[in-house]
Structure formats: structure tokens, C-alpha cells
Write a structure and sequence with these properties.
The chain is of the alpha/beta class. Helix content is about 40%, strand content about 10%. Strands 1-2-3-4-5 form a 5-stranded parallel β-sheet, covered by helices on one side. Helix 2 runs antiparallel to helix 3 (about 30-35) and helix 6 runs parallel beside helix 7 (about 170-180).
């Protein structure tokens, strides 16, 4: 029996044992396997360990996505886990490119072309993933305001991990835990770092909005 003689259910099950790269390579051996590769049922979990992985075509984004992790801990990327004022010009440029890569990817997940992918992505619409677990590291565009929107509108979320997000404050994290006590929220170093100067106004506005929400 040839592998393409297997039914669709068997092929999807076979693909499920492969990582992103091997699924891609396997799908290129036969035309019929490409359709299996594109099956949304295969792509409920996505882990990314380097910026370059976000740019590859070895994965599928679809409504079946339940777990998303965008984190890497290589020595080269650790420079992005410190405050902006500590970095030199080269390091700031490098981290800016890293930020753009992650933001562009999240825009693909959220689908509509908007300025704040986290805010819009948190609002469920037909065809958009009903995320249960979200893990982001060093996402500088994540502020108290967008974090609040994420957990307020992302009703399907069960766990959120936001590490080294320096524009999130302790007050913002506390408010999330108070309003969504059932949500598993972890934040390594977030809330204890110096916010970027360009984010100071946003954080102040976010704090005001949170107080209004708290007493509304």
C-alpha cells in the first residue's frame, strides 16, 4: 500500500507526530499531501523559538489554533529583555526589528490590518482562533491597556504568560488578576522594568482607563 492510499483521517494523524519543518518537507513529496498539510485540525498548537521561524511558510494559521507561544531565550536575543535606556544604538535597532517581526506575525493571526494587533486579536470574530493559551516574551507594544483588553475580551483564554514586557506595570497585572481570578497569569520581570519613554503617555492613559473600568 502506498502512503497516499491512506484515508484523510489517517494522514492527518500521521502528520500530527511531525514538527513544523518535517510536516512541510513531507507535504512536498506528493501533491495530495499538501492538502493534508493545510488542514487546520493539525495546527492547534504553535511554538516559535526564533524570529526567523515567524517568517517561514512551514506552518498554517487557522481558526483551530488554541495555543500560541512566541518566546526565545538565545544569548543574542537577551539584549531585548532589558530596558531601552541601557541599550546602545545598534541594540535598539536590533530590538526594533525584533518587535516589528513579532507585531507583523500577530497581525497575521488577528487578520485585520490594525495598529494594535493584541487589542483587535483579543476580540473574537468568526474564523479567528479561540485562543486558550498565549505566551509572549519581550513584546514592548503590550501595555496595561492592551493587556486589560486581551483578558476582558479573550473569554476563551485560560492562561496568559507575558515575560519581559517592560511597558506593563504591577498595577496593570494586579487589575487583571482581580478581574479574572480564574485566569492563570504569569509575568517574569514584567511590571518591574523601566517603561520606554515613548510608552509613558500610553501607560498613563491606560491607568486612567483601568480606574474608570474598575468603578464603572
Amino acid at each position: 500500500m502506498h502512503i497516499t492510499d491512506l484515508n484523510r483521517q489517517c494522514l492527518v494523524h500521521l502528520f500530527s507526530f511531525l514538527d513544523k519543518d518535517r510536516r512541510k518537507q513531507f507535504s512536498e513529496t506528493y501533491r495530495d499531501l499538501r492538502e493534508v498539510f493545510l488542514d487546520p485540525a493539525l495546527w492547534t498548537l504553535l511554538n516559535f523559538h526564533s524570529p526567523s521561524e515567524l517568517k517561514r511558510d512551514n506552518f498554517v494559521l487557522g481558526s483551530a489554533l488554541r495555543y500560541l507561544c512566541v518566546c526565545w531565550h538565545s544569548s543574542r536575543m537577551k539584549v531585548c529583555n532589558i530596558e531601552d535606556w541601557v541599550k546602545n544604538t545598534f541594540q535598539k535597532d536590533f530590538c526594533s526589528k525584533h518587535e516589528s517581526t513579532v507585531s507583523d506575525f500577530l497581525l497575521k493571526v488577528s487578520q485585520p490590518a490594525v495598529s494594535d494587533p493584541v487589542w483587535m486579536w483579543s476580540r473574537h470574530r468568526p474564523g479567528r482562533p479561540r485562543m486558550r493559551n498565549l505566551c509572549l516574551e519581550n513584546f514592548v507594544r503590550l501595555t496595561d491597556c492592551t493587556l486589560q483588553a486581551l483578558v476582558s475580551h479573550g473569554r476563551s483564554l485560560q492562561a496568559v504568560q507575558v515575560d519581559f514586557c517592560r511597558n506593563v506595570t504591577q498595577d496593570g497585572l494586579r487589575l487583571v488578576r482581580e478581574r479574572r481570578p480564574s485566569l492563570e497569569l504569569t509575568a517574569e520581570r514584567s511590571g518591574g522594568m523601566t517603561p520606554d519613554s515613548k510608552q509613558a503617555q500610553k501607560l498613563q492613559l491606560g491607568g486612567t482607563l483601568q480606574k474608570l473600568l474598575q468603578y464603572s
